[in-house]
Amino acid sequence: MSFELRRAQRLGGASLLLLGAAATSALAQEPVQQPAQDKSSTEIPAVTVTAPSPIVRRVVPTRSPVHVARTGRSRGQQRAAEATPAAPATAATPQQGVLPIVTNQFATVTVVPNEEIRREGGGQLGDLLFSKPGITGSSFAPGASSRPIIRGLDVNRVGIVENGTNANGASDLGEDHFVPIDTLATNQVEVVRGPAALRYGSTSIGGVVSATNNRIPDALPTCGAQPFQSYGMPVKAPLATAGTSPCVTAETRSAFSSVDRGVESGVLLDTGAGNFAFHADVYGRNTTDYGIPSYPYLTDQTRTITNGRQPNSASRTDGASIGGSYFFQGGYIGASITQNDSLYHIPGIDGADHNTRIDAHQTKINVKGEYRPDAAAIDTIRFWAGTTDYRHNEIGLADPADPNTDGVRQTFTNKEQEIRTEVQLMPFNARFAEVTTALGFQVGHQELTAPSPDNPGTLFNGLWDPNNNTRVAAYAFNEFKFTDATRAQIAGRIEHVELHGTTPNFPPDYLPDGTPQVGIARNPSFTPKSGSIGLLQDLPGGMVGSITAQYVERAPKPAELFSRGAHDATATFDIGNPNLTIETAESVEVGLRKATGPFRFEATVYYTHFDNFIFRRLTGVMCDDSFASCGTPGAELNQAVYSQRNANFRGGEFQSQLDVGAFQGGIWGIENQFDVVRATFTDGTNVPRIPPLRIGGGVFWRDDNWLMRVNLLHAFAQNNVAVIAETPTPGYNLLKAEVSYKTKLDPRLFGAREMTAGIVGNNLLNENIRNSVSYTKDEVLMPGIGVRAFANFKF
């Protein structure tokens, strides 16, 4: 056992023992009495999620419990009751830092609420989710380009959506491409671990990450004091006939980080009156090269590193959005336009030598609406529509020794349109159960280009020729409520995908033989079909058990079919395979969860078998920028041919939080987490770039205003690596500590009505952390010891 590991364990154990002894002593000396407000109990905030299922059950406080038999109450009377909530009972304000557990969904869902996003920060979703059980980030350019990885599955198998529509950048086309969703403008993140393809398409066969914000308002703003934790999900708007007065709310979000001298700030504005609501936000972030604990390059010890910083890791990001909604009797319709811009550098030896950076721009227009007709059969109609124009230039030196050769080396463009409509039917009595059905329809079109100015007109110009694809799908979800304690779900989806592109005619052994190559038009089409069945059962002690089985098919993506050139991000010469067939996943998952009481936890085990798993197969041949160079001495890029093999993924996740008891007017407790995934091909060899086994724990103390937490996450060494071009990754200890304070303010004195501020220390042991899933892990260290100070004000 290393000295660093022993030191971390001793520090963590000593902290736990000291805090436990102090709490026990305080409890023993405290006189027994009945306080007006029981500080030893936790007010559990409500967790509302929207990503896993199109079936949304509204909770109406004034109504009696739902019975299977429908009453004769009219739909208008029902809405009137929903618009008039009962007088709320006096209750303690939910405390921050409570582990959110979702128990009413058939899928496994991780929720990152608004207050946690504000504390943790992170420029990319992969940074924010890096330590969550079953989830990590790709960390190609930490802080600037990091895409979420779920249970070892990435890019082509993990969907990313914002407010119900695809993020539509280019992060699934290259590991060095950023995700155009910024945490500064995000109110909640939901991660569906496991197949989410039934609702979002076959490209989400591994899961989906859903970010939400208020850019298209789905509620009129309220200027009264709100609870601190709303998880970014405001109460639905009242009826259009309800009287509302003009209202304006604002929020500022700011932070400074020491490790990269980063400064970030955002302003959000919401206003509305009558039938209209409007939102606007603007944000920006600027960082320099971040600090690292030691020399980063394992493969080259001759380079000079200045000021203890990762070379070529600076970034600058900014964006803005404006949107509005019109509310009418029974619904609303709204639209927004968003601009995302990012200029970030690519760390690593090649990136530093060539001063490589990516200048990315995305313009996105979204439309969203909901209507609840006064009809006997239809409960709700929802729709989403979006169009995106994305473009980025990969800029760098053609010759590292000549600064005059700086220029655009490649350009990626993505123009994409999407429409999704869902109809949720009213529950009906099927005698054996109350049945709720939701039907959905989705259509999308995408056009991709990736030209390079270095060799225009050649067969291997850029990563692929211009290509396009069209997707049409229909899906259905059925939920069966047998009793209040037993529920089931059966869902299915069918989609049709047509792709059009060109690829050269490669020799069977993928070695140049002197035969002239020409581009051949390829027009494959696929019809993936998917289905699932799940059961939820309430158990004694407030626990909920679940079991789900899914059969999911995925159509190959354009990069897997049409690639035929150098891919600097992965240091590969990619060769697409137009003969790829549908990838199939058969998955079983069992879960046990508890969301209430002093002990809250979530445990999940899963097994997934893939038929025709698509992956980059490294042939052992080295190439340069053209296929003719493959096999020549001195070439630097691994030849990678998209291929298919059967594979098995199995693993489990656990996280828990225990409120031990009262201490100094608040609650202290312990928390822990564990996750593991093992992925092998059917011949026993390893699937490349899989996250390691991780285990962690910590202690916390909180009250209505303060949250203090210390947490240590240990990642074991990852020695289960692919045979070619993957090296083992050492383990690490990630120690974090945070202190945050929230309070209400008097607007007459301070201007703001609420404040949350705090300090978060990251990698406090200053460990060398390398991410086993990153293509650049042998050249790029994760940031070293640093402190992040943040302050948020609501007006």
Task: Explain what you see.
The chain is mainly beta and 795 residues long. Helix content is 8%, strand content 46%. It is built from eight helices and 34 strands. The protein has a 22-stranded antiparallel barrel. The protein has a five-stranded mixed β-sheet with strand order 1-6-7-4-5. A two-stranded antiparallel ribbon has the order 2-3. Strand 24 (564-567) and strand 25 (572-575) form a beta hairpin. It is globular. The two termini are 52 Å apart.
Short description:
This protein is mainly beta. Helices cover 8% and strands 46% of the residues.
What is the percent of helical residues?
A: under 10%
For the largest beta-sheet, the strand count, sense and barrel status come to: 22 strands, antiparallel, barrel
- Counting DSSP H or I runs of 4 or more residues, the number of helices is 8
**Strand element count:** 34
Contiguous runs where pLDDT drops below 50 for at least 5 residues? 1-40, 60-92, 225-243
Which strand-content bin applies to the residues? over 45%
Q: Overall mean pLDDT score?
A: 86
Q: What is the molecular shape? A: globular
**Category from helices, strands and their pairing:** mainly beta
- Our measurement of the CA-to-CA distance between the termini, rounded to an integer number of angstroms, reads 52 Å
Rg is: 27 Å
